[in-house]
Write a structure and sequence with these properties.
The complex is a heterodimer of chains A (385) and B (134). With 385 residues, chain A is an alpha/beta fold. Chain A contains 13 helices and 15 strands. Chain A has a seven-stranded mixed β-sheet, with helices on both faces. The longest helix of chain A is centred in the C-terminal third of the chain and has 39 residues. The longest helix of chain B has 32 residues. Chain B is elongated. Chain B has a three-stranded antiparallel β-sheet with strand order 1-2-3. Chain B has a single domain, classed as Alpha-Beta Complex (Sufe protein. Chain: A). Helix content of chain B is 49%, strand content 20%. The chains are: A alpha/beta (385), B alpha+beta (134).
């Protein structure tokens, strides 16, 4: 049996055992509907509000500014469509490397008559705040920029963008799904009005996420139903999920800083090992302004998926930078926007580290990865010619 | 993605991988959808494939299909390879997921091209020989 090493923490994380323990009562004894006024409902409501309190406390905001959704995608949809719906028309500024939850929501709004500017990024994946400033029009109703990119981990200058947004009185939404609970977020200092964040990226359960909505932000609900979540999001709350999410955040608040330092060192050691052992490999994204555990590399003359499969057979889980769907391999749109040449972009591999990864895990990957790349290159006509 | 054990075995231990300098026929095929490229070299004795080698750039299934295709080609009359089908490659891998059928297509295409190249060369050389007799 091979060793098993999970290096895909930007995709999802294992639920922390303390989180599981906190959730369990909410499947059985505290199963009530939090909207019910009897004791069963009140017990569920109490769990729900503890979760909200834990998250509001972590973000240093009012409880009434935090609402729960079913996932990061819904949070992004609600933030963007909610603001757009309140205005009815106008212009939105975003970047070319946002998550699909933002990009496709913006594209949908374009089809509904809104105008959207998709800002380019530099070779390191960073949005230039000056580009934001120049893109602003009299009818700009929203700026939405991610905090860190999930593929390459580059951290955006949200503080500078937030200052511009505030100066011009434009609501600023930040998709922080990849940074929440991993690096500090100061909503006031960053000038953020709406923040999307998710549970399963920080050792909480799947199916639950949050949206911070600064007081007095004008927005409408995007689904109709009951009066839940201060009429921002209709639907019975995922109580057990929210309880687990709150617990996960509480754990992150004690572990986050030390973990960021540890993962940065581990990731740097990983990259140093790969670049010393494998020729023709490049690092994608900003060298230092990057998520602690994220490493994105391109191996020239090898296709991403063959590396992912080869590592999978050795018990190592990483993700491919290019996606093959129905026989079409698309290089990552993020890498394309960053100007990574196609023959490199097709060999992109993302490894994202987390709390269970050790030095021994990285040693093992450094043992199996170089011979795998060498073997695949020996098969490749591109590498020979 | 669920791959058969046979496919995984070919991916882990590709048969007949590498280049052949003194080949009698060579053929390439690419799949534009994803940039996969397979190149097959044939050594032919008495009309049969005496040796075969491949070089492939692509995903795991395309590498595995190349290995399986090389085994299908070895020892066969070259004329038979002109009609080698994707289905035969897929069967030799114990199946391919629907999203990866291009792997069989690119390999079958490369082997058929190599077979045509061999036959065209033989025709040219026999014409040349016939020419000398006149």
């Amino acid at each position: 049996m091979n060793r098993r090493v999970y290096l895909d923490h930007n995709a999802s994380t294992p639920v922390h055992p303390e989180v599981v323990a906190a959730m369990l009562p909410y499947f059985g004894e505290c199963f009530g509907n939090p909207s019910s006024i009897h004791a069963f409902g009140r017990e569920a409501r109490e769990g729900l509000e503890i979760g909200r309190e834990q998250i509001a406390c972590f973000l240093r905001v009012g409880k009434e500014e935090v609402i729960f959704t079913s996932g990061g995608t819904e949070s992004d949809n609600l933030a963007i469509k909610g603001v757009a719906g309140a205005r009815g028309a106008g212009h939105i500024i975003t970047s070319q490397i946002e998550h699909h939850a933002v990009l496709r929501t913006c594209q949908f709004l374009e089809s509904q008559g809104f105008a959207v500017t998709y800002l380019p990024v530099g070779g390191d994946g960073v949005v230039d705040p000056d580009d934001v400033r120049w893109a602003i029009r009299p009818d700009t109703i929203l700026i939405t920029i991610m905090h860190a990119n999930s593929e390459v981990g580059t951290i955006q200058p949200v503080e500078a963008v937030g200052a511009i947004a505030r100066e011009r009185g434009i609501p600023f939404h930040v998709d922080a799904v990849q940074t929440f609970g991993k690096i500090p977020i100061d909503l006031d200092a960053f000038g953020i009005d709406l923040l999307s964040f998710s549970s399963h990226k920080i050792y909480g359960p799947k199916g639950v996420a949050g949206l911070y909505i600064r007081k007095r932000t004008k927005m409408v609900a995007i689904q109709q139903g009951g009066e839940h979540e201060r009429r921002r999001r209709a639907g019975t709350e995922n109580v057990s999920g929210i309880v687990g999410f709150g617990k996960a955040v509480e754990i992150r608040s004690r572990e986050m800083d030390a973990e960021a330092v540890r993962l940065t060192a581990l990731r740097n050691r990983f990259w140093a090992g790969v670049s010393a052992r494998v020729p023709e490999v490049r690092l994608n994204g900003h060298p230092t302004r990057r998520l602690p555990g994220t490493l994105n590399m391109c191996f020239r003359h090898v296709e991403s998926e063959s590396i992912v499969l080869g590592l999978d057979l050795k018990g190592v889980g990483v993700s491919a930078g290019s996606a093959c769907t129905s026989g079409n391999v698309e290089p990552s749109y993020v890498l394309v926007a960053m100007g990574v040449p196609l023959d490199w972009a097709m060999g992109a591999v993302r490894a994202t580290l987390g709390r269970d990864n050790s030095d021994a895990d990285i040693d093992y990957v450094l043992e199996v990865l170089p011979p795998l790349v060498e073997r695949l290159r020996s098969l490749s006509p591109a590498a020979v010619s | 993605m669920n791959y058969s054990e046979t496919l995984i075995n070919h991916f882990r231990h590709p048969r007949n991988a590498g280049m052949m300098r003194d080949h009698d026929g060579v053929g390439e095929a690419t799949f534009d959808g994803c940039g996969d490229l397979a190149r097959f070299y044939l050594k032919v004795i008495d009309g049969r494939v005496a040796d075969v080698r491949f070089q492939t750039y692509g995903c795991g299934p395309t590498i595995a299909a190349s290995s399986a295709g090389s085994e299908l080609a070895a020892g066969r009359p070259v004329a038979e390879l002109l009609t080698l089908s994707e289905a035969e490659i897929t069967a030799a891998l114990d199946g391919l997921p629907a999203e990866r059928v291009h792997a069989a297509r690119v390999v079958a295409g490369a082997i058929r091209t190599a077979a045509r190249d061999y036959l065209a060369r033989r025709e040219r050389s026999s014409e040349a020989k016939a020419g000398r007799h006149v």
